Amino acid sequence: MPYKDKNSPAARESSRRNSAAYKKRHPERILALRKDHYARNGDAIRARQMKRHFAHRDEMLVKMRKHYLKRVYGLTVEQYEALGTACEICGDTEERKLHKSGKPYRMSVDHCHDTGKICGLLCGNCNAGIGHFDHDPDLMMKAIEYVKRTHAAQTA
Ligand SMILES: [Zn+2]
Hints:
The chain contains six helices and two strands; from the N terminus they run H-H-H-H-E-E-H-H. The site of zinc ion has 8 residues, from helix 5.
């Protein structure tokens, strides 16, 4: 039975129910409509998504960083910043080491994988370097002796 007022709550509820029932009866038609819509408007849809993405990108990166520090190291942003900005081995800073994009390079928080204890701030290179030596001082001493014996003589 038709409704006098198409905008009455009862009419709207009835319309919603009919529409839901139609979608359930003809999933293939709904899918075809969606595909057709996307084929015709895909470029505009993607452009709108990218615009939204970039409008919130910086604020999202800040949030992601905050959650990453908390989740991985149990640190707040303030605690992270209190560690300083320079690599404890080579002394490079986040400001000095810039990404190609011009954004500051993020230091690695060196931590003990067994206890989770924070050891200090390292740049990616130094962190990877000691990681490759398994944080083993004896092995690193041997590497130093090797480099001194074989490479330092050539540059001296
Ligand atoms: Zn370093």
